[in-house]
Amino acid sequence: MRGERGSVTLWVLGLSVVIIGFGGVALDFWRALSTQREVAAIADAATVAAASGIDELHYRTTGELLLDADRARALGARSIALQNEVLDSAVFSILPDGSAVELTVLASIDAGFIGFFTGDDGRLKVRATSRASPILVP
Length: 138
Known about the structure:
This protein has helices at 7-51, 56-62, 69-83, 112-118; strands spanning 87-94, 101-110, 123-132. It is of the alpha+beta class and 138 residues long.
């Protein structure tokens, strides 16, 4: 019995370090998931705003719904500017036929605990893509 003194203390200490490690990783990934949901909501709102930028003259003359590329980008950019707190970049693209707008947004967050182990800059990258088309609501 005398040779085993302190072994429980070492086991509890080791287990505590492991639990703290898993907790730190879980917090980093929870922050990344939360940021991804926020980024996706920003992308969705901006594409809906951009999809409302229809080419009115074309619609009045032909009855076909197409996007005015400049107007759609301006509306989407305004939506992003009003709610952006986390984005690193946002890229709008209008389909060649003008029927839809697509937006890809990128964000990154500090990953405190994961960055400690990876040795890099400790940034987690988050990306969301959204697409919307103009529709008429009767």
